[in-house]
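Prompt: I keep going back and forth on a fold encoding question. Comparing notes only helps if you start from a blank page. Show me how you would write down a chain together with its backbone fold. Please set it down just below, with no commentary around it:
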Amino acid sequence: MKALLTRIDRVRLAALSLWAVPVAALVPLGLLWLWEAHALRLWLVALLVLSAAGYGLQFWLHRRERRWLLAVETAANPEWPPEADEAWVLVEDLAAKVKPEDWPIGEGTRLGLLGQQTLERVARHYHPEVEQPLLELTVPHALLIIERASRDLRDTIAENIPFSHRLTVGSLVRAYRWKPFADRLLGIYRAGQWVINPAHALLSEAWIHLRGRGYAMAQEEIHRWLLQEYVRKVGAYAIELYSGRLLLADERPDVRLTPASRRDLRDADAGPAGEPLRILVLGRSNAGKSSLINSLFGQLRVATDLLPDTTRRLTPYRLEREGLDIALVFDTPGSETLDDQTLRSAAANADMILWVSAAHRPDRQADREVLDSLRATLRDQPSRHPPPLLVVLTHIDRLRPVREWLPPYDLAEPESLKAESILAAVEVVAADLATPIESVIPVCLAAGRIYNVEDVLWSAILDRLDAAQRARLLRCQDARRREENWSLVRRQLANAGRFLVALPERGGPGRTRR
């Protein structure tokens, strides 16, 4: 402090003080005039009212900014597999525990340590048996996660922080370096106010205290949000990395056709397109699977017959309808004729399953056993979303009274014996097959009696389209990862071979040249 005062020219300081005296005298003179005019009390009331209004407005602005921060923060990706939910809970727990005073933004090494702790939490979740789970990643993927997390955080700051595009790293460093000196100057100024003008100093301190509370709150809130967002960004990419979902390619995994869909589209006589949604139609023989597909197409595309087991293999048909870009519908033989391996493979490659069950056939124990086996298989794949399941209840026209057929039937408030029979059949099938009652759709597929297909069934399919798309994305990620791994191995071996062939021509360290 003494060294600072010795550098200041006292004559110039005195000249500045003389200029400041008239301005500084305005506050006490004004207070004196208010006292003599008997208006001091009114002025104090106005001061309190306006200060309270200003503080309230500042509090509202803070609440609005807080809602904005919550709206743009990183959340769990709905396209993640179920096993990622527990990992995301660990990331959120770490983000909630970070304190701004423990992680200053100006210290890059500290932020690196915070990112490392985030990675370790996620890595420990996916590799609990490994002593150092953080090392269970490849070098290209480690670089990729840093690149993508930094890119996302850069976009968030550039789009939402005012003037961030003009702020340089040097400015931040210089501001941080001059902060102690600026604090000392501010202290000298505020101390001098108490000597020259105590009344003005008292009001200034009160205003600084109120305003400072609001600014300090906002600054700490932004600091905390940046740290939490940093943890969430790194955690989100770490989940994709350690769960095996992260691909080195930037394109979405469902942009290009998977090998299975490419083959099935060729069998369906369909031209090249994006990855289709795969809808698998299952059920016992003569339950109405082929007739259902014919009704979905709106025209005869599959041969039907009264003989059992008309369909001998999985047959793909391309479906294009409003609300659905492209889909492959698979007609199948009776479930009782399919071996377990074929059935499980078909279900694993499906994005939606339509199980067809005849309403007039009470023997559903075999259907339940097949469905339970499929559910168990899908539960054993925590890295995949199970495809949504709809039970299509066919042959409802054969329910009692058999001769009555006067649709539509209101199942919410049945007014006829036929409607009551259909509702009872829906409830029984839902219980027999352990399926939610809203997932059982009664239809009639008889020629000239088609009912509930175009409206109710198609609406149910569209309602479950988001879940089917999530299942499709994870299915494509699995296929892309396998394809990417083999492609990288082929390229690496080819490049290594070319390098070894060209090595003698380049000349080694011990090779003599002529």
